[in-house]
Amino acid sequence: MAHFGHETKGTDVVAAFPDAVRHGTFVITEPSKGGLGAAIALALAEAKPACLILVGKFQGDSQPVVDEINRRLPTVKSLFISADFGNFESVRGAAKILKELDVPIDGIIASESITGLQYEKTDDGIESQFQVNYLSHFLLINILLDTMPKRKATRAVLVASSIRPDAAVPNFDNYNFSDGETYHPLEAYAQSKLANVLFAKSLAKSSSSDGIAAFSVNPGNIKTNLQTYLSPELVRSWLQRRKDAGEEVPLNTQQAPKSLPQGCGTVLRALLDPSLEDKSGAFLDNCQVVSLPNLDSPAGEQCAKQLWELSERLVGQKVQ
């Protein structure tokens, strides 16, 4: 078994588990060129899956990825489906198209979407990062569950962010930040990504009888096209806000940088490594499972349950 860690690239993981990729169909959200989703798609393509389905808002952002796959690996089918993750009806429409393809989906990777924006609400009246990064993926994945083969090689991977092993149980009561009055872009980003961690834990439990596994991952301190939104002033104000609240310096500011190919490594290990079959619900960082005792405590499990119920109310339907 290869050793996976900070330096591991996505292509290293794919090369270690080619049979987990070959002939499979994978859905990747937000695969714009220069982003994490695009790098994941290109790494997976090396092992010749049957199909890569790229889901994002603008085809023009993803077309260079499709074109590169077609040029380098013409036997790999790739296609784009449009979905505005700031609009639940658009997400439902994309899910309907995916289901009409009538192909089993072996894996879903919910990739990064937005960060560092000023306060905005979506068409559905929800703080944009909470909806785009989390709620719309909650909706999409749950709609697509019945297209996923009932076996442990089938996985959903939620891209999150850094989290301390001793992270406290969160509270999502004020997901709209008092209509922006208490909003900070990086606090909102952190909230949306922590929601993905708890979603993976809940999904792992609810889908365990179907043999579908779920994981959340920190891709690491990578520079993607999303970070063009982040100014030094924005980061400094966030750090000062945390300091004023008596909190420790955020973990991601202390992490060694990673290249974009290295950022794919943890995502793809969660997606492909069969040795993780009994670790469904886990959080991975630097390609390794990280224990989160507070989030796995009864209080953490109750929080995850409440988040699931809140999410169903916000998307306007019960999903399981």
Automatic annotation (TrEMBL):
| Signal peptide (residue range) | none
Keywords from UniProt, A to Z, are: NADP, Oxidoreductase
Does the record's keyword annotation contain Oxidoreductase? Answer: yes
Superkingdom of origin organism: Eukaryota
InterPro entries from the UniProt entry:
NAD(P)-bd_dom_sf, SDR_fam
Database matches in Pfam families? adh_short
What family name appears in the similarity comment?
Belongs to the short-chain dehydrogenases/reductases (SDR) family.
Q: What is this protein called?
A: Oxidoreductase
